[in-house]
């Protein structure tokens, strides 16, 4: 698969089935988990909770021995998905920063997706935060189209989402660079454990307030 990847563009989409392994160096056994994802060339994929950190670090389990661990992957199947050709229309660069201060955070319903809409240039966006799978916190950005031109359904965009560390400034960040479709799937992450997020020492919640920041650059329209 790796030798063939160079023949495809970075926008090529694949359906990939795989199996990841963590080796038990004490017994020679393996912990494995199968997955299937759609992704583009250079995309990352895997599991955000394949094994909990405490179990992984326990030397009796053999996954981490003398500060060394062993992983492997087996590609079970990869299929190229034909996608329509898209054209990029240049435009004046749009750069915008937005901050969402969420107060009384602990009183919010953790079973509900909480969101905030805002504009960047002539485009409507929303930030969404909710409790994801496996007791993780999920933060996503969604694009909702142009305010003045309904035909602008896709944009080429780069953005950074931050959950602000209000104590030390060590913000939890993720960056996306690609194409977003109006009212389609958003982009973000859900890899922050709920326990870590709620830990007062991390500074994500201070005086019942959580701060989310978004930095957006819209590069072009996609047709």
What is shown here, in short?
With 223 residues, the chain is mainly beta. It has helices at 53-57, 194-198, and strands spanning 13-23, 30-40, 71-81, 88-102, 114-120, 123-131, 136-146, 154-163, 172-181, 187-193, 210-222.
Which short descriptors sum up this protein?
single chain; 223 residues; mainly beta; Apoptosis, Tumor Necrosis Factor Receptor Associated Protein 2, Chain A; 2 helices; MATH domain-containing protein; MATH/TRAF_dom; TRAF-like
Structure description:
This protein starts with 12 loop residues before the first strand and ends with a strand. The strands form three sheets. A four-stranded antiparallel β-sheet has the order 4-11-8-9, with no helix packed on it. The chain is 4% helix and 52% strand. The protein has helices at 53-57, 194-198, and strands spanning 13-23, 30-40, 71-81, 88-102, 114-120, 123-131, 136-146, 154-163, 172-181, 187-193, 210-222. A hairpin with a 6-residue loop joins strand 1 and strand 2 (30-40). It is mainly beta and 223 residues long. It is built from two helices and eleven strands. It folds into two domains: 5-81, Apoptosis, Tumor Necrosis Factor Receptor Associated Protein 2, Chain A, CATH 2.60.210; 88-222, Sandwich (Apoptosis, Tumor Necrosis Factor Receptor Associated Protein 2, Chain A). This is MATH domain-containing protein. Residues 1-75, 95-216 form the MATH domain. InterPro entries: MATH/TRAF_dom, TRAF-like.
Strand order of the largest sheet: 4-11-8-9
Number of DSSP helical runs: 2
Please give the CATH class of the largest domain.
Answer: Mainly Beta
Q: Give the helix/strand class.
A: mainly beta
Report the C-alpha radius of gyration, rounded: 20 Å
- What would the average pLDDT be, to the nearest integer? 84
Quote the beta fraction. over 45%
Number of domains as seen in the coordinates: 2
CATH structural fold name of the largest domain? Apoptosis, Tumor Necrosis Factor Receptor Associated Protein 2, Chain A
Number of strands: 11
Helix content: under 10%
Broad shape? flat
Succession of helices and strands: EEHEEEEEEEEHE
Largest sheet: 4 strands, antiparallel
As residue ranges, the low-confidence spans are: 1-8
Distance between the termini: 30 Å
Protein name: MATH domain-containing protein
Domain MATH: 1-75, 95-216
